[in-house]
Amino acid sequence: MNFTQIYKSDRYGNKMVDELLAQEGLERDNNAEYTIALMDGDTMAATGSFYKNTLRCLAVNSAYQGQGLMSTIVSELCSELFNRGVFHVFIYTKQDAKDNFTSLGFSEIVSLDDVVFLENKNSAFDDYLESLGDILEGVNGAIVMNANPFTLGHRYLVEYALNRCDNLHLFIVSEDVSAFPRKIREQLVMEGTSDLKNIIYHPTESYLVSSATFPSYFIKESARVTTAHASLDAAVFARIGSKLNITKRFVGEEPYSESTALYNNAMQELLPTCGIDLTIIPRKAESEHGIISASLVRKLLSEGNVEATKALVPETTYNFLNSEKAISIINKLKNTL
């Protein structure tokens, strides 16, 4: 047997992958960026793919099962990821396939219905939980935000939450695929809330709203797949909430983004069963340009209208948008939006 890479232009190879996945009751992930197959002559014995740091679409032909080919596929995919400098790897799999991956050194993070989410580092998630600190006295609330960039809408959400809890755990999305880089987003959130007390800032790392837990936030997926990802992300948050005794989660209403709306729905179903109340807050009143949102700010920036963002963002964000550090971001927005 030998490995072969299946390129997107390879119609016959992709047809074989689709047929093998269907045979094993799986669907093709059209966002996979790298796919391989283990061939036995003209027969595809096994296949696997990855998107960023997540292994996907893993299947072994029923005629070849029991020969350790799943381990061979996973090892080959991980080797490629390691060569690319990616060492923290995640897998979603069905409950009945969980043992295949725990035997390869993967550890369970959360389990939901018939899906298990695992990672290849034994204590990584526990280490992350420990890094969040100890339980604080009083009512603990939480917000998870991307803040791309930080707006008056985000500020309103923070103030609303602080009025309803004693301590606010503010998680800033670490995934660095947004127009505003991670460090800039973290800076703008902290500067834009520096006058407020009882906020504890946390990075989400790979565990919340990331390419591993919730790729549908960043790429287009079907509603069914997005709901599955959102439910998984919510389940991870429930474990974080348990560690910090978080009993309230605050989110903004989402009239425009289907993926975020589905995420809110998933949290509404799951979090209350874990002792966490979810509050969905209506968007801050419309400005002359529309409801205040980060997407509106990016649109105005793409049009070169920095001045118009003044009514939508805190002074700290507006000052940044007028600085030299923002030039490359704004120019990129002009070329992409």
Short synopsis of the structure:
By secondary structure, this protein is an alpha/beta fold.
Lay out the secondary structure:
Blueprint: E1 2-5, H1 11-23, E2 34-40, E3 43-51, E4 54-60, H2 69-83, E5 90-94, H3 98-102, E6 107-112, E7 115-119, H4 124-131, E8 140-145, H5 152-162, E9 167-172, H6 182-192, E10 199-203, H7 223-244, E11 246-252, H8 258-270, E12 277-281, H9 294-302, H10 315-321, H11 327-336
Can you walk me through this structure?
This protein is an alpha/beta fold and 337 residues long. The chain has two domains: 2-122, Aminopeptidase, CATH 3.40.630.30; 134-336, HUPs (Rossmann fold). 37% of the residues lie in helices and 21% in strands. It is built from eleven helices and twelve strands. The protein has helices at 11-23, 69-83, 98-102, 124-131, 152-162, 182-192, 223-244, 258-270, 294-302, 315-321, 327-336, and strands at 2-5, 34-40, 43-51, 54-60, 90-94, 107-112, 115-119, 140-145, 167-172, 199-203, 246-252, 277-281. The strands form two sheets. Strands 1-2-3-4-5-7-6 form a seven-stranded mixed beta sheet, with helices on both faces. It has a five-stranded parallel beta sheet with strand order 10-9-8-11-12, sandwiched between helices. Helix 7 packs across helix 8. It is globular, with a radius of gyration of 22 Å. The model has no long low-confidence stretch (mean pLDDT 90).
